[in-house]
Design a protein that fits this description.
The protein has a single domain, classed as P-loop containing nucleotide triphosphate hydrolases (Rossmann fold, 3-Layer(aba) Sandwich). Helices cover 34% and strands 29% of the residues. It is built from seven helices and ten strands. The protein has helices spanning 52-59, 82-92, 108-118, 123-136, 152-164, 182-199, 210-213; strands at residues 6-19, 24-37, 41-45, 67-72, 75-76, 93-97, 170-174, 202-206, 218-223, 226-229. It is globular. The two termini are 20 Å apart.
Length: 230
């Protein structure tokens, strides 16, 4: 595989915490290596507390490792200033969480458009693109509804549309079906797989759902701070 095909590389990532009165060291990630290609779907499974969310947050620049490098298209992201890291994250990475984190005082349409507006893009163009994405999610008729007027599955689809609004190169999904029933879980993943093919966006999925994890091109399990290929 050529380096130019890689969207993201993590090299020798270490992350530890100190807990309790005795300041016991808890090693979460241990010299971990990871890479994902452009347009690839990769899943990571593992026991609760194994560090899956911590890894996702580090890969998405929401947290910093104690040591190691995160290269995005061969650029070392943590060499950037905090302001540039925040701008990079908003522009290049889309996040989907178990809890959708929609803003309750804004409509579905406004929630989807928000990252583009934060990025300083035109209001009219942002709204138009948000409408197009809601249409992809079969939610256009719900665009003026507020989050509390939407079902759980609808809220999560709005969150997916929001994650896609800036045409990110990479989407990081942390247990996105954790609060959904089987039918809504399958529907969400059908949408994600379709959008991956349509937009060639790389997708990294953290999930406890082994059936969903198996759909990815590569499947890893996080054990003892390292990724093992399944």
């Amino acid at each position: 595989m050529k380096a130019k095909d890689l969207i993201l590389q993590a090299k020798k990532i270490n992350k530890s915490y100190f807990e309790g009165d005795e300041k016991k060291k808890l090693v979460v990630l241990n010299d971990l290596d990871f890479e994902i290609e452009s347009g690839q779907i990769v899943s990571i499974t593992g026991a609760s507390g194994s560090g899956k969310s911590t890894l996702l947050h580090i890969l998405g620049t929401l947290d910093r490792p104690n040591s190691g490098e995160i290269l995005f298209q061969n650029q070392n992201i943590y060499n950037l200033s905090e302001k540039k890291i925040a701008a990079f994250r908003n522009r290049n990475i889309g996040f989907i969480f178990q809890f959708h984190h929609l803003l309750p005082e804004f409509t579905a349409l406004e929630n989807v458009a928000m990252p583009r507006l934060i990025n300083g893009e035109s209001y009219n163009e942002s709204i138009e693109k948000a409408e197009n994405l809601l249409s992809e999610m079969n939610l256009l008729e719900r665009k003026k509804h507020y989050p509390n007027q939407l079902s759980g599955g609808e809220q999560q689809r709005v969150a997916v549309a929001r994650a896609l609004i800036n045409n990110p190169d990479l989407i990081l999904a942390d247990e996105p079906t954790g609060n959904l029933d089987k039918a809504n879980s399958n529907a969400l993943w059908d949408i994600l797989w379709k959008l991956n093919k349509k937009f060639s966006t790389s997708l990294l999925l953290v999930t406890h759902n082994k059936n969903l994890a198996k759909k990815a091109e590569k499947v890893y399990r996080l054990i003892d701070g390292k990724l093992k290929k399944v």
